[in-house]
Amino acid sequence: MQKKKNILIVTRDFSKEVSTRFERIIMIPVKGMAENLRGLSVDQILAPKKMNTNEQEWFNESIFPLAINGHSKNMKITYY
User: Which segments of 1-80 does DSSP mark as H helices, in order?
Assistant: First the structure.
């Protein structure tokens, strides 16, 4: 059985979790509650290209460590 790929999407204003056969997609709003993501192994992160200073600080403190601590050697942060 293939392991599900975890994809984290940082959104502007809503949160949702969608699970398919091969992927688990977690959407979290900027400045959202990232505490429940601690310990989660993330394979890919998608984030907004333009964030204000507060949003960028939150991203650096809460989300960026998931990329550093990720077990995948091919970790990607894609800005949209």
Answer: 53-58, 64-68
